[in-house]
Write a structure and sequence with these properties.
Blueprint (H helix, E strand, L loop, with lengths): L12 H6 L2 E4 L4 E5 L6 H12 L4 E5 L8 E7 L2 E7 L5 E5 L14 E3 L2 E3 L6 E3 L4 E3 L23 E5 L2 E5 L7 H5 L2 H9 L6 E12 L3 H7 L6 H4 L1 H11 L10 E9 L2 E7 L17 H18 L1 H9 E7 L3 E5 L3 E10 L2 E11 L4 H15 L5 H15 L8 E3 L15 H14 L6
Antiparallel strand pairs: 1-2, 2-20, 3-12, 4-5, 4-7, 5-6, 8-9, 9-10, 11-12, 13-19, 14-15, 15-16, 16-17, 17-18, 18-19
């Protein structure tokens, strides 16, 4: 039996990091030390080596669909202004005035050809150029026109299938390389709608007293569904009855490592809930069956039998390192999460839907989204409670030091309820965390 050395708190930080993840492939054993969820020095290094050096989800193109549309949000603690200029080009600016640092705009979204700092009235146009300074005669000649005090753009911005990412690292690899095989999963999601996809309504913002990596793990953890979400499964069964598999070719579920820390768990026709695009359940009534069947036939006609069927009947939870989750299940949910402390995390979720879907289909989608993924839905309060219980339990790490993430390690194709997707994350986390200062 192998000996696992714990990352003792008196060891240097690099030694604690090195020993935080232990893998024995021959034995089928994978361990993560619980200090990874409680050590503030580790969190500080995560901010530097992961969040400052990864591609991070900023938003969806539909949020700034028209010229001069903008939204503001925080990404890894940085206030960001995301806009489309009058010529249709996307920009991501640091939302801070070059004069004295106030936010250039406090609005969450809107339409503007210029942005005005409310502190001293400095104004910037939609490409970030400083265009107006009250009392400019007091400034040295040419200083305003030099460009030195224009808004600063985030070092890297790129789009993939409507999903827009930024990076604070100017030397990061291109987005396609970073996404690896996760790029095709995002493309699959983008193909739901013939006219594209759009964010619906506003955001769900909430927090919990847990480490951010617990949210990542839980977002594609099928193992907890029958115990943690038993009330939802009972509700679905009482509403829809027991549902037989769609057909004999039903596939119950599997997990895939997508590269670079990304992973997905998938199934086809095996889950008990309905999908607006396009898996009918009795609780939606016979009147909905024809429309949902027509959607499924349309997907097959547009994308081919295999891909169309996989969209219509499939469920997939995708994890994109480090903190983007796309749940394409009973609705399409996009979610990010950022740590505010080692045991505190802020979460933002959006609903994504096909452009131009019917009112009845949109209604089914949003009912599914709110009743399961919403902050007051069946799933989210359950998950918050469980993750906070985990964080509380880590107070006992002097007695039980390690989390076990070994399920499915010896399988050629791990099942959906196994933990391949978590191991993919932790391997990438471990690599990233060892690439920084040694201290």
């Amino acid at each position: 039996m192998s000996t696992i050395l714990a990352p003792r708190p008196d060891r240097p930080l690099h030694a604690r990091i090195e020993r935080a993840v232990r893998e024995d492939r021959a034995r089928g054993e994978f361990k993560v030390h619980r200090s990874a969820f409680t050590d503030r020095e580790i969190l500080q290094l995560e901010r530097e080596l992961i969040f400052e050096r990864s591609w991070l989800y900023l938003g969806h193109v539909s949020e700034v669909a028209s010229p001069n549309a903008f939204v503001t949000r925080k990404v890894a603690g940085h206030p960001i202004l995301f806009n489309r200029d009058r010529d249709g080009k996307l920009h991501a600016f640091f939302n801070t005035c070059s004069h004295r640092g106030a936010l250039v705009t406090r609005e969450k979204h809107g339409q503007r050809r210029a942005f005005y700092c409310s502190y001293h009235g400095w104004a910037y146009d939609d490409v970030g150029k400083l265009i107006s300074v009250p009392g400019k005669e007091s400034m040295a000649p040419g200083l305003i026109e030099s460009g030195d005090m224009d808004l600063r753009e985030v070092p890297r911005l790129a789009e993939h299938c409507g999903f827009v990412f930024i990076s604070l690292d100017p030397n990061i690899c291109d987005l396609q390389t970073y996404l690896a095989d996760a790029g095709d999963v995002l493309k699959l999601v983008s193909e739901h709608g013939e006219r594209g996809m759009e964010i619906v309504g506003g955001t769900h913002d909430y927090g919990m007293a847990a480490n951010w990596k617990l949210v990542q793990e839980n977002s594609a953890d099928a193992y907890h569904t029958t115990s943690t979400h038993a009330s939802y499964l009972e509700y679905v069964q009482s509403r829809d009855g027991s549902r037989d598999p769609v057909d004999p070719k039903v596939r119950a579920g599997w997990a895939r490592d997508l590269g670079n820390g990304h992973a997905v768990i998938e199934s086809e026709g095996a889950m008990p809930w309905g999908r607006p695009y396009a898996r009918w359940v009795t609780g939606w009534g016979e009147a909905a069956r024809d429309e949902i069947d027509a959607i499924a036939h349309g997907l097959v006609a547009r994308l081919g039998e295999a891909r169309g069927r996989f969209i219509a009947l499939g469920d997939r939870n995708t994890l994109i390192f480090p903190n983007l989750v796309v749940n394409d299940t009973l609705a399409v949910t996009v979610r990010t999460f950022y740590p505010t402390d080692v045991d505190q995390v802020q979460i933002t979720g959006w609903a994504l839907a096909p452009v131009g879907e019917s009112a009845s289909s949109r209604d089914r989608r949003m009912r599914n989204f709110v009743e399961f993924f919403g902050p007051a839905g069946f799933a989210t309060p359950d998950d918050v409670e469980m993750l906070e219980l985990c964080q509380e339990g880590y107070r006992n790490q002097h007695a039980i030091e390690w989390n076990d993430i070994s399920r499915g390690m010896l399988k050629e194709i791990p099942a959906k309820g196994d933990e391949l997707q978590m191991r993919a994350f932790w391997r990438q986390w471990h690599r990233a965390m060892q690439n920084g200062p040694r201290g």
